[in-house]
Write a sequence for this structure.
């Protein structure tokens, strides 16, 4: 366990929930850590999320995930794009998103679809559906080893398609749609298998899968 893991959890998640997210308060600051430590903290948080995020409300987790993953909320996510961080650790942190889906989103998101604005969702539904829109992890551009990172996030999205919660499946399709421009063959392969194997029994998800296959997602 990273030495400052509990301090990190308290800083990121143990916050009051207000209409204005805590990280937009100029007095809140950022967690003071070097990229290597941040990458390790991110990976551990997602790997242990089913247990260690359980005490927090959906709203607290939503804001915490935004702080970690959204570059509009903090610079934290850039630790996973820093060449100062060993490749293996960066990939570990990205692959740990599998556990975020399986141990947090799967159990805590309502089984509703964001792209149809279905009612009954909770704060975590927004985080799940918009994860790949809001985070720069869906774009690697000319980053060194960019293809390796695209492969890693494609696998995370692929695994999300196996979830029994349609909110997770939708999130995986959403992400695949966004990386289609950079990994068209891989995206089409994953989605074709998804449709062919009959996983997409919900007509709405099947239609969304066809849209994602051409990068036509919102």
């Amino acid at each position: 366990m990273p030495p400052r893991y509990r301090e990190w959890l308290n800083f990121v998640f143990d916050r009051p929930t207000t209409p204005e997210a805590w990280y937009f308060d100029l007095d809140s600051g950022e967690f003071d850590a070097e990229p290597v430590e941040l990458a390790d903290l991110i990976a551990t948080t997602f790997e242990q999320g089913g247990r260690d995020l359980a005490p927090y409300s959906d709203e607290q987790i939503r804001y915490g995930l935004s702080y970690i993953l959204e570059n509009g909320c903090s610079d934290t996510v850039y630790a996973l794009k820093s060449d100062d961080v060993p490749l293996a650790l960066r990939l570990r942190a990205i692959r740990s998103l599998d556990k975020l889906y399986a141990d947090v989103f799967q159990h805590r998101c309502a089984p509703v679809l964001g792209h149809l604005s279905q009612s009954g969702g909770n704060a975590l539904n927004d985080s799940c559906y918009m994860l790949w829109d809001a985070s720069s992890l869906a774009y690697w551009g000319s980053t060194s080893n960019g293809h390796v990172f695209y492969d890693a996030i494609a696998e995370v999205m692929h695994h999300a398609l196996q979830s029994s919660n349609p909110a997770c499946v939708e999130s995986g399709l959403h992400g695949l749609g966004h990386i289609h421009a950079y990994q068209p063959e891989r995206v089409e392969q994953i989605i074709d298998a998804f449709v062919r194997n009959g996983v997409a029994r919900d007509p709405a998800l099947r239609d969304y899968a066809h849209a994602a296959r051409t990068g036509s997602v919102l």
